[in-house]
Amino acid sequence: MSGASFRLVLYSPPLDSVRALARIRSHARLTPLLRSRALSEGTGADVWLKLENLQETGSFKFRGAANKLLSMPAAQWERGVVTASNGNHALGVATIGRHLGIATEVFVLETIDLPRQQRIEACGAKVVKVPGDSLRTERTARRAAEATGRSYISPYNDLEVVAGQGTIAVEVLDQLPGLAAIFVAAGGGGLIGGIGAHLRRASPGTRVVAGWPEVACSLHQCLRLGRIVDAPESPSLSTSTAGGPEEGSITFPLAQQVIDTQVLVSEDEILAACRRCHRDENQLVEGAAGVAVASFLKLAGEFVGRTVVIVICGGNVSPAITQLITS
């Protein structure tokens, strides 16, 4: 989806990622922007990688969690916070909670792998396992938060969380002006929504490209149809982009406004991209980061001689997928 029609009105109220960056700067790392010689020489574009896999928790999710908690009044800190996530968002909330001394309770699927659970608990968070699916886990967490007067921290359906993710774009423009395009694994829209909203104001000529796995592209289907639908998904190497926006989600209208181009990639393309990052850049990256790299490779011919950034959104890879990438 390209489109001029989506540039007419920015999401209101505006997301202030510049202020968010000032808020989280003492907690979140300024991640490196690494020029990929292999991708640049192989495609003719000037390709740079924004290494969010080097963030403290191994993922960009720390930014949104930090901005949300730091924007809350002290009275809410004292009551503690609740979230629902099996992955990077849980680690982000638990880690910033530890930094700030905020009691954190994380609701997870009962099938969570033990190493991930132990990482969350090592941050001092209480882990509660819930049978069923992710939707049930989230609803259980929300009920627990409401019953105790605590704040529920959504992984993406929150303006402060999305503004925190958009701090990536603020950093990128400081590190590398004159950007032709940025490639982002879209998932449910929180990351690309924050990045795209900032770029629309600060660098409107930059093309915002969203990538999804072919087998798991709920938000893409919603955008195609112009409404939120329950789109079926199959398992993907890009586990952290699974699922789409819930009804009433802020990320759906935001994605409509800020995404210029949508790309779908196969599982083979995702794996090949992850292997390429490991081989050529010495970076072990998540499947979602592979989605962004694979999306660029599909469109690389359009950017010969131009500067692009690929967001390497995370590096928390399970042992099984690590073996697949490195074999």
Can you describe what's shown?
The protein is of the alpha/beta class and 327 residues long. The chain has two domains: 4-59 and 160-326, Rossmann fold (3-Layer(aba) Sandwich), CATH 3.40.50; 61-157, 3-Layer(aba) Sandwich (Rossmann fold), CATH 3.40.50. It is built from 15 helices and ten strands. α1 packs across α3 (61-70), α8 packs across α10 and α9 crosses α10 (190-202). It is globular and about 55 Å long.
Task: Give the secondary structure arrangement, pairings included.
Layout: H1 17-24, E1 33-35, H2 37-43, E2 46-51, H3 61-70, H4 74-79, E3 81-84, H5 88-100, E4 104-109, H6 114-122, E5 126-130, H7 134-148, E6 151-152, H8 159-165, H9 167-175, E7 181-185, H10 190-202, E8 207-213, H11 218-225, H12 251-258, E9 261-265, H13 267-281, H14 287-299, E10 307-312, H15 319-326
Parallel strand pairs: 2-10, 3-4, 3-6, 4-5, 7-8, 7-10, 8-9
Antiparallel strand pairs: 1-2
Helix pairs in contact: 1-3, 1-8, 3-5, 3-8, 8-10, 9-10, 10-12, 13-14
Features:
327 residues; alpha/beta; Rossmann fold; 2 domains; four-stranded parallel beta sheet; 15 helices
Overall shape: globular
User: Roughly what percent helix?
Assistant: 40-55%
Query: Taking Cα atoms only, what radius of gyration do you get, to the nearest Å?
Result: 18 Å
Summarize model confidence as the mean pLDDT.
93
Q: How can the largest sheet be summarized?
A: 6 strands, mixed
Secondary-structure-based class equals: alpha/beta
Q: How many DSSP helices?
A: 15
